[in-house]
Amino acid sequence: MTNTDLTPFNLAEINVANDSNAFHKLQYGALQRAKALELPSFEEEVWRYTQINDLDLSKYSIGAPGGEIHARGLTADVVDVAAMLEVVNGKLVTSQINDPNVSIFTALDDENVASGVGSVMTDAVDIFAEYNFALSTSPLVIRIARNSVVAKPIVIRHATSESDFAWFPRVVVIAEENSEATILEHQ
Asked: By C-alpha distance, which of 33, 15, 9, 5 is closest to 133?
């Protein structure tokens, strides 16, 4: 069996059993569920081409150190936007909103984040989904106002400059009734 114990990681940030923060409580629940699960086996159809047995979680560090924006890759020329969000090494480092019909929620103590993150996938499909939720350091909730058409794209850029580093992006888009928007997410 592959080791799924994350004790090599510093998990003090999410040891929140008695925390009153709604999002932290959800994360704590996901962490407890993840600890009770095992990694999938290559014998399962969906994993048969993956060398899952070779995965050693202790080789990776986690966190959200942020960092400088270096290359913007394929989205470098996309500048006329409704909103621009840039996440580096698991931390939101810049955000710009140019359209009043777009709201971005990022603070872990914001009720929109607690109610939005996890609202789509209410039952995690495997250990990776549970850890993704439990270890998400910079969740993004994007809300499009009711009866609005956001003509320009909302761009989310994810980048990493660290080696042997794991971070867990989580993006939820809530398009209210009769709204339209284009989301361009680049990793």
From this structure: 33
Structural domains of the chain, count: 1
Residue 170 lies in domain: 12-186
H helices of the chain, in order, are 22-35, 111-116, 127-134
pLDDT tens column, 72-100:
776 777 889 999 999 888 888 999 999 99
Residue 5: inside a domain, yes or no?
Answer: no
Tell me whether residue 2 is in a domain: no
Q: List the structure tokens of 76.
A: 């470098």
Instruction: Give the start-end residues of each E strand in the chain.
Output: 61-62, 83-88, 91-97, 102-105, 140-144, 154-159, 165-166, 171-175, 183-186
* 73 and 186 Cβ atoms separated by less than 8 Å: yes
pLDDT greater than 60 at residue 15 = no
Residue 6 covered by a domain: no
Helix/strand/coil (H, E, C) string of 60-82? CEECCCCCCCCCCHHHCCCCCCC
